[in-house]
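Q&A log
Question type: sequence-to-structure
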Amino acid sequence: MKEVHKTLVFAGVAAALLLAALVTTPKTPSAEIFAGQGALFYPDFKDPNAATALEVIDFDEATATAKPFKVELRDGKWSIPSHHNYPADAKDRLVKVASGVVDLRKETIRSDRIQDHEALGVIDPLDEQGSLKGRGKRVTLRDQDGKVLADFIFGKETRDGSGVYYVRVPGDKRTYAVKRKVEISSKFEDWIETDLMQLSQYDIRKVVIDNYSIDEERGLIKDRSTYFLARDDSSGPWKVSGMLETEEPNSDNIGQMMTALDDLKIVGVRPKPPFLTRDLKAKGDFTIADRSRLTREQLQSIQSLQQKGYFLVRQEIQEGGRKRVEISIASNEGEIQVFCSDGIVYTLRFGEILMGEGEEVTAGREEEPKKEPGEKKEKKEEDKKGKENRYLFVTAHFDQSLLGTPPVEPTPPPGYKPEEKKTEEKKTGEKKTGEAKPDDKKAEEKKQDPPEVEKYKKDKEEYDRKKKEYEEKIEKGKKRVQELTDRFADWYYVISDKEYKRIHLTRSDIVRAKEVKREPGYTIGDFERIKLEGLRAN
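Response status: OK
Response body:
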């Protein structure tokens, strides 16, 4: 009886375990779940060149905010709306991004549960209700009509190997593992030409350093000191103005300065007031004869200048023995001028410090409260966290003298008359009159110009060649300056404080005391030391 009872107990336990297994074991995925696996996400998106707008939205967990970045083709020009519509060097890069996602396929299904989105990092960064953790990067491509070509949320990288990420389509709960073929950046510097001046340090011939400060209440420049360094060619030694016999150029600091000018990078941008932009594009710089001529709108815009460290100042200009007063822009940290062998002169005016990181530096936030001229600035920038940066105001103009002395036309020898070019008859088939006989041709070939005429002809030919080259350099230089003016006129730039310090040098930075070479032999000090050591030995 006991044996029968045991058997029934075991049978009951086995039945219970079987039932529990049936209840808890996941159901085998139906064919429906795998439908479409391996197919393209967006089969109608076939031409990468059709993409004319890209929006990338990242999520900053520290501030719990979505950070949109957009590049688009507007009025035939690529621009970045999130950064004041700054021109983007985007056409090739956008095509590359579009080419990298146009053929993305639903490779492997990893989850069909909304609850897994946080762990996989594919929560929509624009979701107003979900968890603040596990938010992904949303990438949307549109065509010229605003139609969505592709829309993805890229999450964490999987453990399947480099470049494989969790991906889902917004509005769809299913998550896939997909090999991403291209890096999709939302960094401002990745979408622009960061080389600010686009010059070579080997073309620099002269740098004028103009250090001064500004009396903000009176609108005058004060404590001014100006000096320059120059060289004859790219391999020549630098010479510094006012250098004493006991001094020499500090080649280390000057070399670092040239490298910084060559490689000066744009970190951020801010738009200039419209009235300032108009004058800069028309004249290359901003000057007026009388401050009273400024409109109310212009006076309000001056606040924007002052917040960034730029002021309207009154200066006396000497012209032909007469003085005239001019109102122009000056900066509270002085300026430098860079003269290049192609005739282009860059003026760099250094403004206020800008503290911060990320978009706060690249695009900026709300403008600070307006201050009256002379009002002391609060130390807000010093209190902010992040890296130090500087505002920079750049202009360019053309100086023909930097191209060297223009070629001089040679003087023809006495009695020389230019040869007249023989013209052929226009009518075809008509016999030419006065056609030279074979004997006459031989006599003409044997005839030679006097030596002075031969020399003149060669000199004239060389002059014509050099004149043409010189005129082409002038035309090229003026065209380049206009291109730079059109580029610089709309913007204040932000540069790193590190580069600012390498460029903004004082005279004590660019000269140093000469090393005194010691002649071989003993000095009085040497004999005294030997004598002292001898006494100690005794």
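Response note: Residues 21-29, 367-379, 422-427 have pLDDT under 50 and may be disordered.
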